Amino acid sequence: MMTLRSNLLFIFLIFLNCTNSNLDTPETGSLDTPETTTTVVKTTTTTIAQSISTKQLSKVHIGDLEVGDCYIDQSPNAMSSFYKEIVFKTPCLEEHNSQIIFKTNLPSGYSDPFVLEAFAGYTCNKARSLYDVIEHVDPKYAELIFRVESIYDSISVEAFEQSKIVCSSYVEHINSSEPKYSINFSFLEDINYYVYDTIWEGEQDSGIVCNSWLYERDSFFAEYMFYLADEFRDVQEMTFVYENANTVIEIDMLEQLNIFSKEGSWSEGIFYYFLPISQIATYDLLYNFSTSEEVEKLFTAPGEEVFGTFTYTNGNGETFESSCSMGD
Asked: Which residue range is the domain that position 129 belongs to?
């Protein structure tokens, strides 16, 4: 069954780069987080190469980097072709253009390389969906686009050299004709500041926004943005439901988020998530075993018939629900 869907699953790997949306963010409470440098330095590939030769940075295999490691990749906008690619590890407060933001074991029980690649891409898109808030709320990202890619080497996987899903992030300038930017700050520190360990002391707030303007242009990249801010941090239940005239897809968001939480659940006071329809489609393929024809309906349904509903129950047993339509 999985093999029959392999070609379509491979196509869905391109959904990692998603579009921007504007949102208002609640103010965060007091945080004991060190300030990060916000200077953005324009540089060309040549400048990066010269920097490497003068600073004598450490050469490492990209697969050996750990979460939080920053590095220089001379082609950050191209998917890594092999697990033992040589990159240059550097402190995050020095010039670099990439950072490892997530690693986890490859799922067991699957041998089809296309299915494994789809799992890797899907997992890294979950990381992007969570991290993407930093692009919208932090001023130093004002002219940058946050990207996430899955580092997947089918040859290394088949040779049992790569056993991990590796997610790497980088940024691009909004004007794609400009040279790539190098940075001297950490995406990991930024997500810690804006999401993890953030104290919420105001009234409860939550909601969902449909990216309806983009849905009309390209439904593949259109997304839902949902959020919560709640003083009762231990979320008991959290679900997202996609619905059109022909299809209903329910996603247990706590199951999606447990890979980002040491407790195996969501226990933060603030939460943002950007869920593209392409990710919902991949979820439907991987977990609901839907056919290609059924998945295609997610991209062809009229906007006024496409809805999203976000529901969660907080640690005080209170349930909140919000919904929107791609036709709004």
From this structure: 32-194
